[in-house]
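RESIDUES AND SHAPES:
===
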Amino acid sequence: MERLAAAEDVDLVVAFDARPMPLDHPKLVAFQQDIRRPIAHILREHGIGAVAHLAFLLRTGHGDESARQANVGGMAQVLSGCEAAGVSHLLYLSSTTVYGPHAGDPQPYTEESPVRPVRGVHYAEHKAATERMLAAFAADNPDTSLTVLRCCPVVGPHSDNFATQSLRRLMLVRVRGADPQMQFIHEDDLQDALERCLLRQVPGVFNVAGEGAVAFSEMVRVAGSRSVALPEPLLRVLTQVSWALRLQSYGSASGLAMVRWSWVASIAKLTRETGFRPRYTSREALKASLLVRGR
């Protein structure tokens, strides 16, 4: 946010977060509040013209309804606030999980690929639901420019998500016979893409990811971890039973699709329309994240 505030054509940056934000910049104003609370009065008071909505619960745990209230309910509150405050541009950080993955999917995914989140993967289902809300908002508010960035897993020294948490495990379980290709993007590259689209108010839906991909087996080797391969039927039963008994909170058996099928998206459209080119490949972003974490 400090880098965004330092831009010459930015007068003020207003930030919302449920946690305290130690910000130190004359053009930064922070509000500690839940995204489900009204924001229209704050947007109007500070004359905000563009909004970037990044807040989302990635790991929903066993309580899907509470996560849905935060993710889908949070989007409803943001859209309501933007409409009431007359915001001219809204940028939303979505996910490439809205595409799947599924067996036999053409790779790489493009922005024209069907939105088909894996059933039971709540994070992906919530992302798809919020994108539908955005489409309805766009139809009712044609004067508001909308940008949707469908992003792959983010890694880096400040990233703490399911991807970076998985890389810290000493043992990973994989589906026997499967070695899917996966993408990663360095947090610095994502910040660059966000700033480009936000400052230029580039409308449209775009994939954003690091160049290239990393096989699951290579990810395990780079992380210095080990893996055990189990047949898919057995792994599905073990995952579902351990989930139902609350022995693990990583996810239900539905999530096995994410480590069984390849999951790669093209960023050609984003590069063509904004000039964005990531500095880190997927492999380099992964290695940079692990190096910082001492692995």
